[in-house]
Please model this.
Amino acid sequence: MRGTIAAGVLVCALLACAPASAQTRLTLRGADAPGPARLDRVDVLKVGPARARRVLVLAPGTSAGAGYLLPVARDLVARLPGWQVWAVERRENRLEDHTVLDAVLAGTAPPGALLPYYLGWLGNPAPGPHFTPPGTGFARGWGMRVAVEDLRRVVRAARRGGRAVVLGGHSLGATIATAYATWDFGGRAGARDLAGLVFIDGGVGPRPGLDAPAARAGRRALAGGSPFLDVAGAGVPWAGGVYGAVGATLARLAPDAPSELQAWPLLPPALKPPLPVTNAAALGYALDTETGPAGLALAQAHLGGLAPTGDPRGWRDGERAPVARVARAISGVRGVDGFAWFHPRRLSLDAAAIAGGRANPAQRVLGLRATRRRALRLPVYAFAASLGGRRVLAAARALAPAGRRTLVDRSRSHAHCDPLFAAPRGNDFLRTVVPFLRGL
Model:
């Protein structure tokens, strides 16, 4: 498990002369929530100059970590002088074990150490040292209230010194941003902390996704089984995040070597290319829109395709996102990767009741307070890609009048993660969100 940090705030300050794309880590005390007090923490990766007067706080989506936001964060601060971007790591990411990943990134362990430690021990009757998933029954209580109250600590830190804060999110992160802006913090709407909202293929419209009986049934279902989503469908909730972190790190550090994951017998068949491939090609095959399984749509982008020749077969870029950029985003930095290995089911259940910040029976059943829609007067930017589609635009229309919203529909041309992974030259999200933010 990641090392814990003493109560209070640990700030690794950026030097004023640091490059605009430099990053530093901030750890804040989070809300009191079920589980050990040492997990009441929220981490932030800050990108951009320390003297910035404006901050864009970005919340990640389902089963995602702050790492996958770093490429577009660097692109944004390069085009927005005077801005920082803060990528949020939710508390569930602190359950991950980055010991070997960090050693490999630091060059003190070889890439070949990754698979035995994180996955190779499964099915091995005599495993050596390996990743041991933590006990986590308490995470059944990690829902929207915990996420919003943790996020409030981040927004307050970003506002210090009179800085203006825009809150945004990708996918589920946009729903969390909506919940924050419409949350009733003791009679005060969260929107009063903000200068604007940015939705990246996410957000929720005015109607709840479940009624009171469904909310009760969902709450009862949480009492059994794992408290976390099994996104990969492998029967082990953390498997999807580990596949991603290991596969991306191998693709980053040994892109042309034969794929180690492809040879692992327990890899799901949908992730196995039909012929021997390199580490880079294995990652590209899993996350490209044409070859990746439908269950991974949350992480897919337009990457390219397998090279026409080679043994093992390599990867050929040629669409929006270079595979090396994606590998770096998912592999991440020390202690932080682009996936969340443990995504609370309660958070996804609660998200279905947010309903654009309108009170409803499901919110009452689940104990939520995203009810201050009428207090929201913020400018809203919304980018629709393939997964959220036009529902994203409808969510923005429900929150802001015509003169206060910027809607970009790329639902037919951009995959869910293209806005984050695409190279700057072909990134329509980057091209359109920069003028919106400048206008604030």
Observations:
- Residues 356 and 399 are 7 Å apart (CA to CA).
- The chain has a mean pLDDT of 93.
- The radius of gyration is 21 Å.
